[in-house]
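A quick aside before the break. I want you to see a complete sequence-to-structure record at least once, exactly as it would be stored in a machine-readable document. Don't worry about memorizing anything.
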Amino acid sequence: MVPERVARRLGIPVLTVATVAVLITRCAGSPPVATGHAAAAVPTASRTAPACAGCGPTAQTTATSGLAGKPDVVAPPGSGVLFAGRDLIYATHGFSTAEVAALARRVPGPVTAVFSSEQMVASRVAGFPDIAVDTLIADPVSYAAAVGVPDLAGLLRAGVVLATGEAQLRKVGVGGRIAYTDGTSLPVTAVVDAHEIGGHEMATALGVRPLASGATAGYLLVGGASTVAALTTVAHAVWPTRTIRVKDHTANGYMSGADTVLTQLQTKLDFGEFTSRPAGVDTFVPDPAWIKNHLTSRRIVQLGDVTCNTAIINDLTAAMQEVTARGLGGLIDTADFQYEGGCWNPRAARAISGGTLSIHSWGAAIDINVKNNPLGGAPHQDPRLVAIMAAHGFAWGGRFLRPDGGHFQWVGDSIPH
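That is the input. The structure line, written in tokens, reads:
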């Protein structure tokens, strides 16, 4: 059965080979960019582009040029290949400064440490002041060199660089400003293809926006390695106790630690962006309008009462109906689901640095048989259940770097899973 389609992401404008190009077309096809040693073309998404109007809550931004104008798009010179000759390394809970330095001493090429930080943009929704924005923070010269776009360095130093989809959510273009909940604001210096900033919503330089105390780099971009296997051998020698992944390309096409799942920007475009207010350590309350417009409660066979994002509820229902029709209901512990599992749960992710929001915050993932599949433990899901969930658009957490065998996360059919 083909999963129900969700009109999910804004189109990505085609980049020219000039160092600085002009963004004119919205909702166009996939750009001619590539990642890593292999320089494989980024696959075209199999979704239609939704209309942009009203896709996010109102933020405190001021657009002096706006999306109706022609915001600058920084493009890679020459071939249009991004991150050429760079490999990606990521690990659960990221890398300390000492760990990054230790690797840099052992590899022949540059090492770029990339921080992924939830920066709080100010909203205009009364009582719900925060909009969490996934922000790339890195040394600007090192990151621009890794991307292959030298001009990007100055733009990162001077303010914030927005992905095209983020510019639509914020309703702001080059020359506008992004206001933060701490009372500061920064100018938008460029609007770029999301691939250029690793699929993050925004990007800026180290020191422009604060990082949390003790923040670790979410992933590294490493140059100079002859092969992924060679770099893996070196990395294991440097960090013998760490569980890591080394890749020259990613499943979702973005050169970042998100790799096998939707980025937060894609998640917002699929499932709606909410404003929120804090509700305790690593928890928050989304605004009631988002809850009303994007969540659905339903009694689903095998699971009982479930509250999930409206965009995935039919796919989840169809998956459970298939489980039932095939006589596999015994594979799911309904009581465990009601007690320890679930779908919608607004909180931070448990295994990602930078305070990144959990996909459960959007009600776009479900936890099944949690008791027998603890986070970080050996997964114990029946492969027939995993296959059924995959057929309906859900990637299995048992294959994550830090296994989460009870977790099924909706990715649709645009990412192999």
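Two observations worth writing down. Residues 131 and 339 are 30 Å apart (CA to CA). The first helix runs from residue 97 to 104. We'll return to this after the break.
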